[in-house]
Amino acid sequence: MRSVALDLAVKKISYCEVAVGHVVARRTVTSLSSLKELLGPECLPARIAIEACREAWHVHAELTRWGNEVLLVDTTRVRQLGVGEHGRKTDRIDAEILAKAVEKGSLPKAHLLSKPRQQLRLELSVRRTLVETRSQYVTTIRGLARTHGVRLPSCDTNAFVSHLRKAKLDQNLQELIEPMSQVLEKVDADLARAEMRLQSIVEKDSKIQLLMTVPNVSVVVAAVFVSVIDDAHRFRNAHQVGAYLGLVPSEKSSGEHRRLGSITKKGNSYARTTLMQASWGLIRLGRSDDPLQQWAKAVAHRRGKFIAAVALARRLAGILWAMWRDDTVYDAARVGFCSAAGLKRQAQETKFRATAMQSAAKKARQRARPHERKLEHLKEMNL
Predict the structure, then answer these.
(1) pLDDT tens digit sequence for 51-96
(2) Of 176, 203, 49, 193, which Cα lies nearest the Cα of 123?
(3) CB count, 10 Å around CB of 349?
(4) For the segment 146-172, what is each residue's pLDDT rounded down to a tens digit?
(5) Are 111 and 234 in contact (CB under 8 A)?
(6) Whether the Cβ atoms of residue 148 and residue 173 lie closer than 8 Å to each other
(7) How far is the C-alpha of 329 from the C-alpha of 349, rounded, in Å?
């Protein structure tokens, strides 16, 4: 097969084909369709390298449909191929280096998410954007109110707009914040719909429900974890999962000297953030008999809360991965005397599993009810 690489830039695509270590064709185009005469169904099939990026899923699907073999490149390891070497990094050079790596078979490959996980990732991205937009508008409105000597009462973010409409504000302030209030109403409606779409995905995905049996692991935390990991069996152990999510310490070792630093923060930042949020929430929960919380508080006592939160997030990632791999629900007693890597259990009582899964499904339904009521209210208001 031909050895080809594409460098996908914002406004152009750099094409490079090599044979026996030498460049035989180059081209720069503005769209993928312009390469159909080189890579289309009527051409000889090619082995094509593309770096993992936003448009990689679409490009991968299209090139595969044309009859090519597409290789997704791990961008965190391309430097080992010579990308950016000696301060020389252009689209043409990058494409040539990747094409030569394809021919040699030395390409560092990245995992391509399955179609259901791609859709889940997109739904989570939409929800995250709407949540962040709403938070920004709420913060701005509260700040504007304070400049007028008004302190809006605390309330749940979901109910902020309704509370705002009931508040007695002077005319100048009301006119100032009215445009943002209208946007907030629209964002609330869109967010409620996004939550319901996510809920429908969760109800069909038993893996997400399985992971929700862990204390303080919400629908969003479980869904984000599933959307990033995609397939538990592509990891050998819990440490690999932690490293993939950027939750392991960075290391600089030379000779007999070993220096560990802060976590690497490589991989998906949203998955890392949600795990940290779950970790902090578990640490701040009231006193419980859960071994995870007790373990985290013991670490916090020795090394501080921040280190404990990071350590707990890393352990949570390992536990979630092991549960998924072994298709087991959370068992506090088992976690009490097993490490995350040894979470595998040899027997699983059917009743115990069913009870835990029912509890997770109930939690998901309870979470969806406010959004269902909000959608009904919005329908009545024709929003």
Answers:
(1) 998 899 999 999 999 999 999 999 888 888 888 777 778 999 999 9
(2) 193
(3) 9
(4) 999 999 989 988 889 989 988 889 999
(5) yes
(6) yes
(7) 10
